[in-house]
Structure formats: structure tokens, C-alpha cells
Design a protein that fits this description.
There is one protein chain. By secondary structure, the protein is mostly helical. It contains 32 helices and no strands. Helix 16 (247-264) packs antiparallel against helix 17 (268-281), helix 16 (247-264) runs parallel beside helix 18 and helix 18 packs antiparallel against helix 19 (302-310).
């Protein structure tokens, strides 16, 4: 096998007239490739770096060094490989993105602009060019946000530029403008909005806008936001990195968002590239660790992902988010007890922390330990101030879900009623309670009224939209049900139940082909008995009951 590899490698590495002169180099190259195949990446990387010094004209060597440098996070070697690879005149977009990133760090604006000229022409990543240009202008002391507000920007540029405008205002200390933009982003229930608030909160708090910062963090409600507020309340010290905002941080967070999207699109190698480059630009940014950990785990680099996420002090506000990401990786790997152990250890390290107790309860629930989760949620409610009505409303919802899964619906109803006493306009509690009532055929009118109220408050939630559509479906009003169920399915790509509801509605209105197609799509993401039921529907429709 090794001899065959040697022969094949020769065709790509050297030309026939220098066969004997390069036999030693060829042997070293084969050894490096074998190391790479065996996942001994550091050994392979060292060999490629040594070889490229001797054969800087080798395109195959430059390619291997570039790809492996990106995989292992050796950005300096990747940049060196680009210089060697450029001799062929064929550089990928990643090469120019790296060159731009290096130029940004060095404040070499000429090199940055040259790289941007290539990036803007790229059909996939060209949408980032206006954002990257805006940071060059901002770093030079100009108003870079003008590039983000240009009318000819693409929809992608506008979407990925939402938080970037706020970061640039914060960097330039235009706090009133930052506040206005943050308020417009706050409703987004996505990681980028959370990370912006966690960055802006401490900066605004430090610069005299205490009430707004506290309100911002309280409304965000993540474990990290709660931890930050706890530090404020106790007079503690926020880690220095929380106050840091720079062009490198802004671009790193852009790369992090792109990396997360690429994971969703199952483009794992490129996702790791963006996440690693982000980490290189902003090594102390805890938000970037979350993106890198997710990208590495999706790419099968589980242990490295765990190491990235574990490298954080328990006093850091991001500790709960890092632990949560690590736990999700373990749960995805079906390592449930390990996940629970990490959550337990995290809670025990700070037993007074609401966020870590919440993390423990959520982990126990996802691991199927519903009774233990219910006890943790009960403890969480007990230690939460009566003044925190919104938080108590959500904790009541989580407790009721665990109780219901544990088979104690009667007690869950009492908890849900209490949750409504805390806050009767919590759309997610109203939706869960209402949907449960109509599904259990206990009180359709009351349940449907709850769902309708939830939809009036939160019309863009796929879950709530699905519940309302399903409520109309059960009532026999297919004309109102179908548009809602289609809207819900469009907003939720990975929920088999929502797609199943839409398939049922299609069948009921006579669209049999659409129904079978929708059920088959749902079956691809369903598991266990849900998958069996969907497969049955796809074959027999609703005419033959599933048993």
C-alpha cells in the first residue's frame, strides 16, 4: 500500500526528469500524507512546512500545507502557504479572507483593500465585502456604517450587518446611536443578538448608562446575561475582555456568524476555517469560543471542541454558555450521563448561580431525567425573587414540561396556572398550555383562546403559528389552517411535528402528492416511533390508521 502511495504521489509532486534527484523528498511527502490520513496532523504539518522550504514551487505541497494549516488552526503557516500557492495564480476566497484578516491586524490598509477587491468578486462570500470595508474605514477614524447602510447592498449584507453597525458605534463611543440600533436588534432570538447584548451591556454600564444596560441584560435572559447582572449586583469585576471592542472583534464576530450558518448548511470544513480565523483575530472573545466549539464538533473534532469550551474560568459570565455548548455536544453524542455530570459540577462550583442551576435542570430534562429536572426547576423557582415575574413565568413553563414528560400532567396544570399568575402574556407559556389542552382534548375552547392570544403577541414564532394552524385544523377550518401551517413549516426546517401537521392538512384538502412529499421530508428528521408513523402516512395516507 505504501509503495502504491509512493508511485501515485510521484505523479503529482515531481516531474519525470527529476525522479532520482527527489526520491528523498518524495519519501518524506508520502510519510506526511500517511500521517495526515492517520490523523497525526501535527506531525504531517511539520513535515509539510519542512518540505515547502525545499520545494517552494510545488503546488501540491502548498495545497496540503494550506488545508492542513486551516484544519489545525495554524494561521501563520496558512498565510505562508498562500504565498507559495499564489505562484499558480489560483487562490480560493479563503486565502483572500485570511490576507484581509492579517492586514486588519497589521493596520495595513493597502493590503486590506487589495484583498477586498478579490473578495467582493466571490459569488459566495462577496456579500461580506461591504462589512469588511466598513471596518477598514472605522479603524481609520471614519464613519464606516455608511457602507452598511448603502441602498445597493444585498439582503445577506444587510442581515449580517445588523449587529456590525452597533459594534462600530460602540467602538467609536457613539453610545446613543448604539442604543438605538441595539433596541431594533433585541427582538431577534438568535446567538448574534445575544452576543451583541452581552458585549454592549458591560460597555454601556461602564460608560454611565447603567439603567439601560441592566434592562438590556435582564430582558435578554441568557445564563451569561444573568451572571453579568449578578456580578453587577455583587459589585464584582467583569472580565476585561467584556469591555473590549475593536475592528478585530467586530470582524471575528462576523466570521463567527458565518461559521454558524455554514454548520447549519453542513459545510463543516469551511465553517471551521471561519471559526478558527475568528479565534485568531480575537483570541480572548468568549463568544468566538462558542462558534469554534460548535464548528469543530460538527466537523467530528469532538475532543478539541471540548477543550476549547472547557478553557474558561467558572467566574466568567460566559461559563454557563460554554458549559451548555459542551453539554449539547455530549448529548448529541448520546453521552447523557457525562453531560449531566458536567452540569452538576458547574452548578456545584457556584450553587448560588441561577444560570447554572437552570443549565442543570435543562440538561437533566434533555437527558431524560425528568423527575430530577423537575426538582431542579422547583428549586430554581424557590430562589427567584417574586419581583422577577417574567423569569418566574418561564421557569414555571420549564417545570410544567418536565412534569408532563414524567407523567404528572395534573401537577403540571397547577404549575402552568401559577405561571400565568406571574405573567399572563407570556406567549410561549400560553402556547404550550393551549396546545396541550387541545391535543389532550380537555378544553378545546380555552386552549384555542390561549394559542390565539400567543399568536397575537408573537406572530413570527413557527411553533405558535403551527399551534394556531393545528387548532383550526382540529376544528375543521382547513381554509384558515393551511396558510398558517405552511407559514410555520417555512420558518422551521428541522421540526418533524410541524411538517407532519402540514402533511395532514395537505391530505385533508386533497393535495395527496404534496402530503406524501411533506411526510417523507418529516420522516428524514424524525426518530423512533415518530419516524415509523410518518413512513406509514407516506405510504397509506390518512385512510389507514397507524397502530
Amino acid at each position: 500500500m505504501k509503495k502504491l502511495s509512493l508511485i501515485l504521489a510521484f505523479a503529482y509532486f515531481v516531474s519525470p526528469n527529476i525522479l532520482y534527484a527527489n526520491e528523498r523528498l518524495l519519501s518524506e511527502y508520502v510519510e506526511a500524507r500517511l500521517s495526515e490520513i492517520d490523523n497525526r496532523n501535527q506531525s504531517a504539518l511539520k513535515s509539510y512546512k519542512d518540505l515547502i522550504k525545499q520545494r517552494s514551487d510545488s503546488q501540491i505541497l502548498a495545497d496540503r500545507l494550506f488545508e492542513l494549516s486551516l484544519k489545525t488552526g495554524d494561521i501563520k503557516s496558512a498565510l505562508n502557504a498562500i504565498d507559495a500557492r499564489e505562484q499558480s495564480g489560483d487562490l480560493p476566497a479563503q486565502a483572500y479572507i485570511l490576507r484581509y484578516s492579517a492586514a486588519l491586524k497589521d493596520r495595513d490598509w493597502t493590503a486590506a483593500i487589495i484583498a477586498l477587491e478579490a473578495i467582493i468578486e466571490d459569488p459566495v462570500f462577496g456579500f461580506m465585502a461591504p462589512i469588511m470595508t466598513s471596518w477598514v474605514e472605522t479603524a481609520k477614524g471614519n464613519d464606516g456604517t455608511a457602507f452598511l447602510r448603502a441602498s445597493n447592498n444585498s439582503g445577506l449584507t444587510n442581515f449580517y450587518g445588523l449587529d456590525q453597525i452597533s459594534y462600530q458605534y460602540l467602538y467609536r463611543k457613539k453610545f446613543d446611536k448604539a442604543r438605538k440600533n441595539i433596541v431594533s436588534i433585541r427582538p431577534f432570538n438568535e446567538a448574534f443578538a445575544r452576543d451583541l447584548i452581552l458585549k454592549a451591556g458591560p460597555i454601556l454600564h461602564q460608560n454611565g448608562q447603567v439603567n439601560f444596560a441592566r434592562s438590556l441584560l435582564s430582558a435578554q435572559g441568557s445564563g451569561a446575561a444573568i451572571s453579568t447582572l449578578e456580578i453587577f449586583n455583587d459589585g464584582g469585576k467583569i472580565p476585561t475582555g467584556f469591555y473590549e471592542i475593536s475592528p478585530e472583534v467586530g470582524i471575528a464576530r462576523l466570521y463567527g456568524r458565518v461559521a454558524s450558518t455554514l454548520v447549519d448548511q453542513k459545510l463543516f470544513d469551511i465553517s471551521v476555517f471561519f471559526a478558527r480565523t475568528a479565534k485568531w483575530l480575537a483570541p480572548d472573545d468568549r463568544a468566538i469560543d462558542l462558534y469554534l466549539g460548535r464548528s469543530l464538533a460538527a466537523n467530528g473534532q469532538i475532543e478539541e471542541a471540548n477543550n476549547v469550551l472547557n478553557n474558561i474560568k467558572s467566574t466568567d459570565p460566559y461559563f454557563s454558555l460554554h458549559a451548555g455548548q459542551n453539554i449539547r455536544i455530549l448529548l448529541d453524542e448520546k453521552r447523557n450521563q457525562e453531560a449531566v455530570n458536567i452540569a452538576t459540577q458547574s452548578h456545584n462550583s457556584h450553587p448560588e448561580s441561577q444560570s447554572l442551576l437552570l443549565l442543570l435542570a435543562q440538561t437533566q430534562d434533555m437527558a431524560g431525567q425528568y423527575d430530577a429536572a423537575a426538582k431542579s426547576y422547583q428549586k430554581l423557582i424557590k430562589i427567584t425573587s417574586d419581583k422577577q415575574k417574567r423569569r418566574l413565568s418561564y421557569f414555571s413553563l420549564y417545570l410544567a414540561r418536565s412534569l408532563s414528560k414524567a407523567g404528572n400532567w395534573e401537577k403540571a396544570v397547577k404549575i402552568l396556572d401559577r405561571g400565568l399568575e406571574y405573567k399572563d402574556d407570556n406567549p410561549f407559556l400560553l402556547n404550550y398550555y393551549g396546545y396541550s389542552l387541545i391535543e389532550r382534548d380537555e378544553d378545546y375552547d380555552r386552549g384555542f383562546a390561549m394559542i390565539k392570544k400567543a399568536y397575537d403577541i408573537e406572530p413570527n414564532s413557527p411553533d405558535i403559528t403551527d399551534s394556531l394552524g393545528w387548532g383550526y385544523y382540529l376544528k375543521g377550518n382547513l381554509q384558515k389552517a393551511l396558510p398558517l401551517l405552511e407559514k410555520a413549516a417555512q420558518g422551521s426546517e428541522d421540526d418533524s411535528e410541524i411538517k407532519e401537521h402540514l402533511g395532514d392538512a395537505y391530505w385533508s384538502v386533497g393535495r395527496r402528492i404534496d402530503a406524501r412529499y411533506t411526510w417523507r421530508i418529516a420522516a428524514l428528521i424524525a426518530v423512533g416511533n415518530d419516524k415509523k408513523r410518518l413512513d406509514h402516512k407516506a405510504e397509506f395516507g390518512l385512510d389507514v390508521p397507524y397502530s
